[in-house]
Amino acid sequence: MPRLLSTVACNLDPQLLGACLPLFESGEADAIEWSFDALYRLHELPEWFHGLIGAFSEGDRLIGHGIFFSLFSGKWHPEQQAWLKELSSICDRYRFDHITEHFGFMTGQDFHHGAPLNIPYTAATLRIGQDRLQRIAEACGRPVGLENLAFSYSADEVRRHGDFLDNLLAPVNGFLILDLHNVYCQVENFDIDFDTLAAMYPLHRVREIHISGGSWEPSADGSQNIRRDTHDGAVPEKVFQYLERIIPQCPHLRYVVMEQLGAGLQTEASKSAFRADFRRMADIAGTWNNPASDESIHPFTPPASRLQSAPAEDPDLHRQQTELSSILENAASLEDALRSLETSSLAQSDWQVEQWSPYMVETAMRIARKWMKKD
Predict the structure, then answer these.
(1) pTM
(2) Which whole-number Å values give the CA distances from 359 to 119, 189, 356, in the listed order?
(3) pLDDT tens column, 358-371
C-alpha cells in the first residue's frame, strides 16, 4: 500500500540547502520538489547540485514546480514559448514524476516578471488556461497540476476558486496542489471557516499538499492585518491542524511538501525550527497510507494532446491586465489606485472591481511592487 512521501521544496539556495542537508543525510526527506524555472538563466547547474537532483530523479522521487510561466496572460509572449522549450529540455535530462505551475497571471509589462495575481473567472480565461495547461503537458510529457491561490480581491473570488480550478484541470486530467498556508491566508483574510472552504476545492484532484509559513502585514491605516504567503516563517499551528484534517479527504494524495525561503533561514535556530516543522509534517503524513493509489498507474496521466496550432489569446484581457499592472505598480496611494480602477477598462466588467476589498487592493500593490523586475 503506497505511503505518503514527505518532501522538501529545495532549490539552489545556500541557506535552504544548509537547512535541508541533515534531512538528506538521515534519509528523512523522501522526495524533492524543485522550482526548475528559477534557474533557467543558468547554462549549467553546479555538478554537486546536479548530483543531488539526479539522485532523486533516478529514484522517481523528483517533482517540478514552476513559477514564471504566467498561465493566464491574455497575450501569448515569446517568454512563454521559451519557457516551454526549456521545460522540454529539462524533462529530457531529469525524470520528474509530475510538473506543476502557479495559478494566475504575472504582473509586469512582459508578464514573465512580476507577481502572480488572480484573474476573472470567465469562459475566456478558462479557455486560455486550458490551452496553456495542454501546452505544458505536451512540452513535459508528464502529468500537470496547479497550485491554489493565496491571494484574492474578494470573498466571492475565494468561494469560486475551487470550482474554476476543477473545470480548468479537467481537459488534461490535471491535479491540484492544495497549499494549506494559501488556504490559511484566505481563511484569515476573509473570515471563512476552513472546513467550509476546503469542501469547495476538488479534493479528488489533490495529489500534492504544501505547507509553509508566512507573515502578517498591517494595512496602511493600521486597522487590519493581512496574512501574506511570504514563505519566511515557521508553519502556523492551524496549518498543521488543517493537514491532519484534510489528508483523509484526498484519496489520490502522494506528496506532502514543506516550503520555506532561504531568506527566513539565516540562523541555526531558524534552520533547526525548519527541520522540526518538517519532522512534524512527516509524522502526520506517516500515519496515513493511500489505498486508492497504485504506484504503477499514475491517476493523472494526461490524454493525447489536441492542441490548436496557435495559442489562445484575448486582446481585451491583455489590455485589462496591462492596465491593472500599471495601476498596481505606479499608483501614488491606495486612494489613487481605487480612483484609477473606477475609471479603468476593468470597471463594470467581469473583473468586478467594485467588489474588491480596499485592503486587498493595497496588498496587491505591495505584492506587485515587491516582484517588479529590476533593470
Answers:
(1) 0.94
(2) 18, 9, 9
(3) 999 999 999 888 87
